[in-house]
Design a protein that fits this description.
Blueprint (H helix, E strand, L loop, with lengths): L2 E6 L6 H11 L4 E7 L10 H11 L6 E6 L3 H7 L4 E6 L2 H17 L4 E6 L9 H9 L10 H11 L2
Parallel strand pairs: 1-2, 1-4, 2-3, 4-5
Helix pairs in contact: 2-6
Bound molecules: 4'-phosphopantetheine.
Amino acid sequence: MRVVVYPGSFDPVTYGHVDVIRRARRITEKLIVAVAKSPAKETAFSAEERLDMVREATRGLDGVEVNLFDGLLVEYARQVGAEGIIRGLRALSDFEYEFQMALTNRKLYEPIETIFLMTSESYSYLSSSLIKEIARLGADISSFVPPAACRKMKERFGK
Ligand code: PNS
């Protein structure tokens, strides 16, 4: 594929996300990591903070661009000429939500194809929400998130 988007909240970006980004690069010429400006759920970090963390975590990766998007994902995908949407799958529990999203997005914009990539088993248990919970309680999260996100988490949660 020429252009695909990898959308998400990235609140914060984790090594699981970075793993999906690395895998996705192998199947596309250009990967646009699309950070949702206002996702449905409340975020701990602002859109600019989440964007900066993803930018720093992907610095040096050829063919990867990181942008903010607002509004409908399929509208953004159409504007940037993306042929596909990448989503990472960790466990069966992700499937129902992802299935609903993929089919809704297809209904809204038929030409778009959702491609699921399996996260490496080393990261399959990681989630941004669990990482935030343990960071708030003072755990060391440096093996879960890239240095930029680790720094931001320390600033935010003071640990
Ligand atoms: O990392 P997340 O929170 O699982 O990502 C969810 C995200 C941001 C990809 C999804 O909420 C989204 O696409 N939001 C944009 C608005 C939209 O198009 N919603 C309809 C999706 S079917």
